């Protein structure tokens, strides 16, 4: 489904070079749930951002369904990001002036066009799924941190993507809410979604089909 080969990434800022990835490899099968673990600074977020095409590698290959993503046209790359790939960030990036439902609908909001009723209904189904029934009209500021994180997950679900990338999706949640998010991810995997999740939580990491450890910018 997704294959990264020998990915290198060096950050340069203020004359300092940091080698974040030094030849990282990963293969994710269709419907597979992979957890990515490793110490702070080992390159997990950088790798996840490259896998989800939000960041370009300095070198290496990224293949999606056998095709080299770096050779995609900008239009094709946009379609990939809009449809096939969904991302849940460590910090959820909800827009504060949009309701929970509108935040979920963000991938569908284009200019001033109204979102079709059927898509709006799907947003409510996704909010139900993450346990936020009836909270669609609330602004993020009126939701708890855990509820906001779940809105971000609902936003990733609404697109019915093939691969979900999640960077510490339970990082800011209490145990109970974290457990609920993890069961949801397991359910989605059972429905055929491929998942790559970064986590510092060993128990949650072990719930994936495969646990992959990173150290110093490589997969161990
Ligand atoms: N934009 C950037 N500019 C410069 N250096 C960066 C940048 N982003 C990351 N780095 C460096 O690259 C290395 C890997 O960072 P990354 O964020 O991938 O680590 P991580 O494994 O996700 O850590 P954490 O568990 O703390 O989130 C770190 O040494 C970090 O300081
Ligand atoms: Mg990180």
Overview of this protein structure:
It comes from Pseudodesulfovibrio cashew. This is Cell division ATP-binding protein FtsE. InterPro entries: AAA+_ATPase, ABC_transporter-like_ATP-bd, ABC_transporter-like_CS, ABC_transpr_LolD-like, MacB-like_ATP-bd, P-loop_NTPase. Residues 2-219 form the ABC transporter domain. The protein is of the alpha/beta class and 220 residues long. The protein has a single domain (32-54, 74-208), classed as P-loop containing nucleotide triphosphate hydrolases (Rossmann fold, 3-Layer(aba) Sandwich). The chain is 32% helix and 27% strand. The chain is built from seven helices and ten strands. The protein has helices at 44-51, 74-84, 100-104, 117-129, 145-157, 175-190, 202-205, and strands at 2-13, 16-28, 33-37, 59-64, 67-68, 85-88, 163-167, 194-198, 210-215, 218-219. Helix 4 packs across helix 5 (145-157). The model has no long low-confidence stretch (mean pLDDT 92). The structure holds adenosine-5'-triphosphate and magnesium ion (MG).
């Amino acid at each position: 489904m997704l294959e990264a080969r020998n990915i290198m990434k060096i950050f340069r800022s203020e004359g300092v070079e940091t080698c974040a990835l030094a030849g990282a490899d990963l293969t994710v099968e269709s419907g597979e749930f992979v957890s990515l673990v490793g110490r702070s600074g080992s390159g997990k977020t950088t790798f996840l951002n490259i896998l989800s095409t939000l960041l370009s590698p300095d070198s290496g290959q990224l293949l999606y369904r056998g095709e080299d993503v770096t050779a995609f046209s900008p239009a094709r790359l946009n379609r990939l990001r809009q449809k096939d790939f969904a991302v849940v960030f460590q910090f959820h990036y909800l827009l504060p002036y949009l309701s929970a439902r509108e935040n979920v609908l963000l991938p569908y909001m284009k200019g001033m066009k109204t979102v079709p009723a059927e898509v709006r209904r799907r947003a409510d189904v996704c909010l139900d799924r993450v346990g936020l029934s009836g909270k669609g009209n609330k602004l993020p500021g009126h939701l708890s941190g855990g509820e906001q994180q779940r809105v971000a997950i609902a936003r990733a679900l609404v697109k019915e993507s093939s691969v979900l990338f999640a960077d510490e999706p339970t990082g800011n949640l209490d145990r109970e809410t974290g457990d609920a998010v993890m069961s949801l991810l397991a359910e989605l995997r059972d429905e055929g979604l491929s998942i790559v999740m970064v986590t510092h939580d060993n128990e949650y990491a072990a719930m994936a089909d495969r646990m992959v450890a990173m150290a110093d910018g490589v997969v161990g």
